[in-house]
User: What shape does this take?
Amino acid sequence: MTEHVADPSHPRYNSLLMRHKLEVAASKGMLANSAMIAHGRGEAYDYLLGEQTIPSAFIATKEIAARLLNADNPIISLNGNAIALAGEGFLKIAALLNCPIEINIFYRTPERMNALLSHLNGLNEKLGLNVTILGGKPDAKITGLEGPRSNCHKNGIFDSDVILVPLEDGDRCEALVNMGKDVLVIDLNPLSRSAKMASVTVVDELSRVVSNLLEIIPSSPVISDWDNDECLQSALTRIVETISKPTK
Ligand code: PTJ
Assistant: This one.
């Protein structure tokens, strides 16, 4: 990144860097018009969580790593925001898991798909990886969903048994669960429909989750007896604690 964003000593440096990544991605036509609004909602929750990985989110990240490692056909489904914020990291995770990435966006246009495919393919080449990137030629539909957001690849999302979906929309999450898949969601909002519908929800900022996954996956974690409601409750408890702390 050549353009000066802010001094790394700035207290909100990470937040400014992420916003800048989204601005750059928007200028390349990669993002939905409402991408910044979605990000802003995430920032608000992140503020309330202390802008850090809370212990329950770290445990949830271990659980998703274990489930992805244990899957027969794991897949990572990425949208515009996820690719803009952490495209490189997701490619490295896919390489570790030896699984494909499928670009699957809510606001699907051929122009956005081309911009996202060429961005991820460029990163794949730059990193010297050989991750299969799907999404360009969908030949199947997510059962029970209408419109372009149901388009998917038969040898990708459709046939997967375990799917990692950062920033998923509630309807699609529900449809994927109804297809019998193990649906692993990353969402800063513990109250969202996706967070509540998922098999495992990591309530954490997706770039932090990516860094954590890159550390955790090589340690081969094992699947636990998972209680997702308890995990969501821990995040809500943390938010309540933040709000009720007296201001200095
Ligand atoms: O690229 P597309 O077409 O698939 O469109 C993507 C957006 C994000 C515009 C679309 O999916 C959307 O409108 O999303 P929502 O319904 O606003 O939901 C976004 C959810 O992600 C919210 O619950 C946010 O709290 C959460 N979120 C936003 N940024 C992050 C995040 N969670 C984790 N990490 C983030 N960086």
